[in-house]
Every structure is written in structure tokens, then in C-alpha cells.
Amino acid sequence: MLERVVMNTGPLVALARIDALEIIGLLPVEFICPEEVYAELREGERQGHIPATPGYLHIRPLAAPLSPLAVSSLDTGEAAVIQLALESRISHVCIDESKGRRAALSVGLKVMGTLGILGLAKTQGLIPAMRPYLEKALAAGIYYDTGLVNTVLKAFDE
């Protein structure tokens, strides 16, 4: 069973935009984010974006400064998520952006995104269906590849 996940900014914002942030907090999972992601979320709130910093989110500092190489190819949040997962020996990260997902996979991390988190919520019985959340996400302008959406819905019998 999935026990801990290091979260990136994008999935937290997406979950907030589809009113699923608190539902996800009911999962038997410890959700962690690096201070860099928390700072991005707080800055977004200061700029008027939807709050996406739930009380269940554990904020952790990195043990070492971010690698300049990682920051040159990824945004700060993604680089920090990957580094925190590696430092903390956490096997799962939640990143939606393809570049960050590829980087995480390349260092041996297991990657899920917003849709994976919603799928987990469905399997745990916290939501009856994923489709309404996906439709809300698409209506809110959140982009997911059509093939991916169809694959996910089929995987969860929807």
C-alpha cells in the first residue's frame, strides 16, 4: 500500500480547482511537499489563485541545496520534489508535468499524477466515480491528454 507521496504544485492546484483537495486528505497516505513547493503555493495564493495548501500536507526542508543541474532542466518545485523523495527514501511522487515525470522515472521513482490520486480515492471508496472530477477539471481548463483520460476511465470501469 502507498504510504507516503511527495507532492508537486500542479496536482495540488488541480485538486483544489476540482474541489477534491479535502477528499484526498482522507486517504491513508502521508502527503509531503518540499518547502519550495509550499512557497509556490503560497505565492499563488498571494496573487489571488485558489488556496491549495491543505492542513494535512507536511512541509519538509531539503537536506542539501538543490542541484544546479536539476534546476537548469526542471522548474524549482519539480526538482525539489524529486530531491526530497530521494533524500527521504520515499518511492512515490505526484507530478503532472511530463518533463518532471520523465526526470522522476529516470532516477527510479514511481510517478503518479492527479488522475492517479483520484483513482486511489475511488479504490478507497472516497469518491463513487472519477468522471465528474475529470469533467470538472477539463471544464476548468486543466489539460489532460485525451488518450490518457480514456485509459484511466477504462481502468476504473467508467
Per-chain topology:
Elements: E1 4-7, H1 9-17, H2 21-24, E2 30-34, H3 35-46, E3 58-60, H4 68-73, H5 76-88, E4 92-94, H6 98-106, E5 110-112, H7 114-123, H8 131-139, H9 146-155
Parallel strand pairs: 1-2, 1-4, 2-3, 4-5
Helix pairs in contact: 3-5
Note down, in words, how this protein is organized.
With 158 residues, the protein is α/β, with parallel strands linked by helices. It has one domain: 3-Layer(aba) Sandwich (Rossmann fold), CATH 3.40.50. It is 52% helix and 11% strand. It contains 9 helices and 5 strands; from the N terminus they run E-H-H-E-H-E-H-H-E-H-E-H-H-H. A 5-stranded parallel sheet has the order 3-2-1-4-5. Helix 3 runs antiparallel to helix 5. The radius of gyration is 15 Å and the shape is globular. It starts with a strand and ends with a helix.
What's this, in brief?
The chain has helices spanning 9-17, 21-24, 35-46, 68-73, 76-88, 98-106, 114-123, 131-139, 146-155, and strands at residues 4-7, 30-34, 58-60, 92-94, 110-112. It is α/β, with parallel strands linked by helices.
List keywords for this structure.
alpha/beta, 52% helix, five-stranded parallel beta sheet, Rossmann fold, 158 residues
In the CATH hierarchy, what is the architecture at level 2?
3-Layer(aba) Sandwich
The 3D shape can be described as: globular
Number of domains: 1
Helix tally equals 9
